[in-house]
Amino acid sequence: MNSSFRIEEASLNQRIKDIADAATRLFLQQGYARTQIGHIAKAVGISVGTIYLDFTGKKEILHFILKCTIDPDFIQREFARPITDDLFVGLEDELIALLDKLGNDFAAHLENDLVDYSFERLISDTFDILSRYAVGCLFIEKNQFDFKNLAENYRTFRRKFFDTMICYMEAYIQQGTVRPLEHVELSTTLIIETLSWWAMDIRYTSFETRNISSDLAKQICMDNILSAYKNN
């Protein structure tokens, strides 16, 4: 492969990334159904025709975004253009399987009586999960009526995630690691919603988004949640 081809390929991959980034924000902020190819083109600063050189349609852009949520290295591949939906056969099953795995992995430490698993580690891991899969989670939440099967599986995941978090909190209270709480369920909701906002919404869907690093957002969450709930 000569150098000029590599430069051209890198430029095309950057354009695909720019399209995906713009579409992500539009899908999350105004909804998938309301977003048109023209909106994406305008946000990127290219023509509608140029987008169709890279993707056969809006659905393919969405599937590309969701695939990159599962596999961040996917965007580094070389793609035949325009990208078609043939590239994403079985994607919904992959997403559902991922939700199931995340739920099971998150609960794993309960089976070991929290051996070597601190409250700090729980909060850190929860933030990391929410941050890592922010785009996929937010997309389903904001477009649940357009993607009902995914939304139903996501609700199941959220219920399991929430119930698992309550079990962790109750175990840490019993240990004396977390201070006694009068309303464990509501306090757990507050913790999850705080982590969710700082891990996901602040970057994409809050009224005034802020481009702060994930590390800083995590530090703010850790400092405040540990200060509020950890037993001194």
From TrEMBL:
<feature type="domain" description="HTH tetR-type">
    <location>
        <begin position="13"/>
        <end position="73"/>
    </location>
</feature>
<dbReference type="GO" id="GO:0000976">
    <property type="term" value="F:transcription cis-regulatory region binding"/>
</dbReference>
<dbReference type="InterPro" id="IPR009057">
    <property type="entry name" value="Homeodomain-like_sf"/>
</dbReference>
<feature type="DNA-binding region" description="H-T-H motif">
    <location>
        <begin position="36"/>
        <end position="55"/>
    </location>
</feature>
<dbReference type="Pfam" id="PF00440">
    <property type="entry name" value="TetR_N"/>
</dbReference>
<dbReference type="GO" id="GO:0003700">
    <property type="term" value="F:DNA-binding transcription factor activity"/>
</dbReference>
<dbReference type="InterPro" id="IPR001647">
    <property type="entry name" value="HTH_TetR"/>
</dbReference>
<keyword id="KW-0238">DNA-binding</keyword>
<dbReference type="InterPro" id="IPR050109">
    <property type="entry name" value="HTH-type_TetR-like_transc_reg"/>
</dbReference>
<protein>
    <submittedName>
        <fullName>TetR/AcrR family transcriptional regulator</fullName>
    </submittedName>
</protein>
<keyword id="KW-0804">Transcription</keyword>
<keyword id="KW-0805">Transcription regulation</keyword>
